[in-house]
Specification:
260 residues; alpha/beta; five-stranded mixed β-sheet; 11 helices; 13 strands
Length: 260
């Protein structure tokens, strides 16, 4: 058994008091994992850039750390494995601070409050609002693979047919193409999708079904980074900057024209 050794590349230096911050500062770069397709929190523009509440937060973090910012986009279910392997320094991707995930990684936040909803068509809304129909073998629901939406369907509608999608775009297309009765996802994503596809007769619930705090996920074992992020969010909230970012994407839909 060898003790006191250091690691390079994929994982942080466990002998350091602040291994992830050391890694960020040594390379002069903050690497953030995200999906890039979860509006209004994160989305990819026609030009290939990332916009949204979370990219703006990440840019502010990198500026405060005086390092450059790099995003690594991947499928949602790939994010936690990438974080634990040290391929990203943190996750900013509409990730609920769930108890199950918190057993694996540290969460800081929340910086946004969300909740589960359903994206469906106007013609099937009444059908989906009937609890007996929602939890019926005749009902087909789609949720993002590895998401709390998948967990919600498993608990609330165990008899329904569940299909898991790799990304939100694929799930929304299933509803539009009548391959699923509803897409179970975070309320903001459902609401944005209604406006994003105005000719598809989509609708969503007026109130979320659950309470879900969204936070920053980081590796365990770096108390200094956790403290830095806590203070960063306190400052952003106290200065009004966090609310301004939220309003920019929640109250103004002009950014929709930048999406493919």
């Amino acid at each position: 058994m060898v003790s006191g050794c250091t690691t390079t590349g994929k994982t942080a230096d466990r002998s350091s008091v602040s291994p992830v911050i050391d890694r960020i500062q040594q390379r002069g770069e903050l690497i953030v994992g995200t999906t890039g397709d979860m509006p209004p929190l994160n989305m990819t523009t026609k030009k290939g850039g990332l916009i949204g509440i979370e990219p703006e937060l990440a840019n502010a973090m990198a500026s405060a750390m005086e390092v450059k910012l790099t995003f690594r986009t991947m499928r949602f279910h790939e994010l936690l494995p990438a974080l634990k392997a040290g391929k990203v320094d943190m996750i900013l991707s509409s990730m609920t601070m769930s108890g199950r995930r918190n057993l694996e990684v540290v969460f800081v936040g929340p910086y946004f409050i969300s909740g589960k909803s359903m994206l469906t068509k106007l013609k099937t809304l009444a059908f989906m609002q009937n609890p007996s129909q929602f939890n019926s073998p005749k009902t087909t629901l789609v949720a993002l693979k590895g998401s709390t939406g998948q967990e919600f369907v498993g608990k609330s509608a165990p008899h329904a047919k569940l299909i898991t999608a790799d990304d939100y775009t694929a799930a929304i297309k299933m509803v539009i193409g009548d391959k699923a009765h509803a897409f179970v996802a975070d309320y903001p994503i459902c609401a944005v999708s209604v406006f994003r596809y105005p000719n598809q007769q989509l609708t969503t619930l007026t109130q979320p079904l659950t309470f879900e705090p969204i936070g920053i996920a980081i590796q365990a074992g770096d108390p200094l980074l956790m403290n830095w992020l806590q203070n960063f969010l306190i400052t952003m909230q106290g200065s009004g900057e966090l609310d301004a970012i939220r309003k920019r994407y929640m109250n103004d839909a002009s950014w929709l024209k930048e999406l493919p």
